[in-house]
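Please review the protein record below. Tell me whether the encoded fold seems credible here:
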Amino acid sequence: MKQIFAIAMAILAIAFSAAAQTPADKQVEAELLRIQREMIDTSLRGDKSAFERYTADTYLETDFNGAVTTRARILDNFLTPPPSMKPTLEIQDVQVQVYGDTAVMSSRGNYRAEANGQKITDSFRTTDVWLRHDGRWQLIASHDSQIPPERVAVSVDPKLFDAYVGAYEISPGLVFTVTRAGDKLMGQSTGEKKLHELLAQNETTFFIKGDPDLDIFVKDEKGQVTHMIFRSMDGRELKAKKIK
């Protein structure tokens, strides 16, 4: 569940925002953006020269599925879509933190292409680690995380919500509490100050806006809610028994 990791993410955000950019840092950001754009544009044309020039020999890339690939393997399998697919890659929300001769760049990528009239879109976040060696910036590591498409809520009868209200124990000391606020169903984990609205995907399956995971209410043969299942984007499930 997204809310379980909120504290860890907040700590990470503080760490990345601690140091304000200096004029020198802004110059580094501009230089890395130029290099990144060159690498993208040439790669989309099937030209791997910029990738070869700006990546370190020890470069490692971690993809959406957690697989780690070396620079040598990427160059041996340098695949790009044909021009007929009209591929584009737009970079947004760029943040660069500079630590001497090391820089960390976070960005969002929006990929678009066509295949026989069919639209292809993909959004992801990338974290790149750069190292300045002999006055040249080289990319030493990159990690991509796919951004799932936004879920669309449907309307369900609020009368169903009464059966879902209660406390669901994830683990001793960690409970997910479900309440009603008029015609809205709300959820909150132990220690959280904020209530999250649970939006319906169907009559038993709900989600929190911005969270790819699903919150599923499970009933027994008598129609009584016995537990919840928290299903992550990769299919893993965590069961929480209804304790009251």
Q: What stands out?
A: The domain at 158-242 is CATH 2.40.128.50 (Lipocalin).
